[in-house]
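Data card: per-record layout.
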Amino acid sequence: MTHNVVSVDGRLTIAPGVSLLAGDDRWAAITAGLGDPYAWVRQTHDPEVILEGSGSFLPHAGEGVQPGHVEAPSGGERAGDADQVSLPDGDADRVFLPDAVVSSSGRRWFTVVDGRGRVNLEYAEPPDPGWAGWHALVLTSGAAPAAHLAQLRARTIPYLVVGARRVDLARALDELARLLGVATVICTGGGRLGGALLRAGLVDEIDLEVLPAAIGGRGTPALFDAPPLGRNEWPVRLELRSVERAGGGRLRLRYDVLGPAGP
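The structure for this 263-residue chain is written out next.
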């Protein structure tokens, strides 16, 4: 499932190059009264994993990023990497899942897709009481420096190396299920990460909070910012599950993903 807050024209932020991490009065105005999207996702969907792109933590790498509505790293994380690595259990170079963290009852995972090992997470466990029981986990690739993986181990931040040069998203979701028993994953990341998941057929539901505003602008980060469809590729067909009027003129829309619209 993906969850995003978007304008009526599908924009995730105000403009290219505007960092919402630093705050932006225009975005604050159109999201007034919205509340914390993360809290709404946790309460409504009860996920075991919330999936984010590294752009949440590297604002210079994205365009107008903010927590929950971000771009994946420059170049994107890509599913189906042909040079994916295997994940033998117990291989400390590929799998780091310390028992002290993993064995905690009811553990949930704030998971960052960081194929190049560039993110220095501020917390292993969020200090906000609303995030009690949640722990950071990193999905990375063979492109991540050994020193970065060593730093994650020193901070007891679990990681999975899934892919040779980029994170193989399909394999990553399989490993989350196999190794951690994860059943529900919600991507709150931005257009590139969401777009990669959609193109790979890894999205079963799309959950949107639509703002009563139109932003426009060439290059402004948008929902499912994937490469253009090829000549023989088809749009993804959706079926409306529910519509809810929210405060301030917002709409909450939920769609089931049915698959390609063509043969």
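Known properties of this structure: The chain has six helices and ten strands. Residues 61-90 have pLDDT under 50 and may be disordered.

See the next section for split statistics.
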